[in-house]
Fold this protein.
Amino acid sequence: MDIKINKEVCIGCGTCAAICPDVFKIGADAKAEVIAGDYSGKEGLIQQAKDACSVQAIEVGD
Ligand code: SF4
């Protein structure tokens, strides 16, 4: 699973990190970043975070 944050559009609201803190966090630049790791079993929460992002900054690929 390939997860990317478009930092050009991320507004650092923290919603993704609140929904799925194992995968998303707010970094030192006050934008979301993806925590490296095993995403198995977290696909549903990752999708929820993607859907909840008001600026569509989360890109999820295979
Ligand atoms: S929900 Fe979207 S805008 Fe908010 S911190 Fe996450 S990626 Fe950025």
User: Anything to note?
Assistant: The pocket of iron/sulfur cluster is lined by residues 5, 10-16, 32, 53, 55, 57-58 (CB under 6 Å). The first helix runs from residue 15 to 19. The two ends are 5 Å apart (CA to CA). Helices lie at 15-19, 43-52.
